């Protein structure tokens, strides 16, 4: 697999009245906002249900709130998919982040040069894999940039490993920049830090199970451009190539977006 090629279908959530996070500025007449706040910007509170996301894609699948099957972390988001009869790709993903007031967080051109941190816990149980076939569990995805996925995906290639893939905006760099053993049936925590940039001053940072990770360049910060199109979206769920088969479930817990590592640390 060279990269994930994706197509989004917006189904949205129902807005509910609540307070904005401090510093968030709504755009008049629109249901989308940029980001001007500092600190914690968004939390994936299961009490709000799937309204915490901008949209859902279930082809096929379901996205619900359910108890942690291991009784450790409480209510969590549960993504489940199963076989398509046509043996094509299967996708069960949430896309984007929605505030309690209903506005959608947009990390766009106005946020170039800024740094953001996203943290969450994930459990994959069950998660059948097929040798040589990919499954994506999380993506940072360009929006408004035409076909082609990127710039980042946490995935497996059916090789018993978990990878972080980086795709440059020009498509010239497409590689796994970090890998570890894939463990299903176990909770793992992630924090991904990004500096949004169209140029080489952009960067990626990764913490896995509380430990800062080193990339294939033997540093703990991978430099590279991370922006094209209109904005970037965060997605969770199970998106897989068709030859994978069987019911697959990802649980996501304690998801947070902030401007510092401490805001979202797991």
What is the topology?
Blueprint: E1 32-33, E2 40-43, E3 53-59, E4 62-67, E5 75-81, E6 90-97, E7 104-105, E8 107-108, E9 115-124, E10 135-143, E11 151-156, E12 161-167, E13 174-181, E14 188-195, E15 203-208, E16 211-212, E17 222-223, E18 231-240, E19 248-258, H1 261-264
Parallel strand pairs: 1-7
Antiparallel strand pairs: 2-19, 3-6, 4-5, 5-19, 6-18, 8-18, 9-14, 9-19, 10-11, 10-18, 11-12, 12-13, 14-15, 15-16, 15-17
Describe this structure in words.
With 266 residues, the chain is an all-beta fold. The chain has one domain (32-264): Jelly Rolls (Sandwich), CATH 2.60.120. Helix content is 2%, strand content 44%. It is built from one helix and 19 strands. It has one helix spanning 261-264, and strands spanning 32-33, 40-43, 53-59, 62-67, 75-81, 90-97, 104-105, 107-108, 115-124, 135-143, 151-156, 161-167, 174-181, 188-195, 203-208, 211-212, 222-223, 231-240, 248-258. Strands 2, 4, 5, 9, 14, 15, 16, 17 and 19 form a nine-stranded antiparallel sheet that branches. Strands 3, 6, 8, 10, 11, 12, 13 and 18 form an eight-stranded antiparallel sheet that branches. A hairpin with a 7-residue loop joins strand 10 and strand 11. It starts with 31 loop residues before the first strand and ends with a helix. The relative contact order is 0.24.
């Amino acid at each position: 697999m060279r990269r994930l090629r994706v197509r989004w279908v917006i189904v949205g959530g129902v807005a509910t009245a609540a307070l904005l996070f401090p510093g968030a500025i709504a755009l008049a007449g629109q249901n989308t906002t940029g980001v001007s706040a500092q600190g914690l910007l968004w939390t994936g509170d299961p009490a709000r249900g799937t309204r915490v996301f901008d949209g859902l894609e279930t082809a096929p699948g379901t996205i619900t709130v359910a108890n942690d099957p291991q009784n450790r972390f409480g209510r969590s988001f549960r993504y489940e998919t199963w076989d398509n009869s046509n043996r094509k790709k299967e996708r069960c993903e949430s896309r984007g982040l929605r505030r309690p007031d209903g506005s959608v967080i947009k990390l766009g051109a106005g946020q170039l040069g800024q740094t953001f941190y996203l943290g969450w816990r994930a459990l994959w149980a069950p998660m059948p894999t097929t040798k040589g076939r990919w499954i994506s569990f999380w993506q940072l995805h360009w929006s408004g940039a035409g076909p082609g996925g990127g710039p980042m995906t946490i995935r497996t290639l059916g090789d018993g490993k978990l990878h972080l893939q980086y795709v440059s905006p020009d498509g010239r760099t497409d590689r796994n920049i970090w890998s570890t053993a894939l463990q299903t049936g176990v909770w793992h925590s992630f924090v991904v830090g990004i500096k949004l940039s169209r140029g080489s001053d952009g960067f990626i940072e990764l913490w896995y199970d509380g430990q800062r990770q080193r990339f294939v360049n033997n540093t703990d910060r991978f430099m590279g451009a991370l922006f094209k199109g209109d904005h970037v979206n965060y997605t969770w769920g199970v998106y897989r190539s068709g030859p994978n088969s069987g019911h697959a479930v990802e649980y996501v817990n304690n998801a947070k977006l902030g401007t510092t590592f401490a805001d979202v640390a797991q």
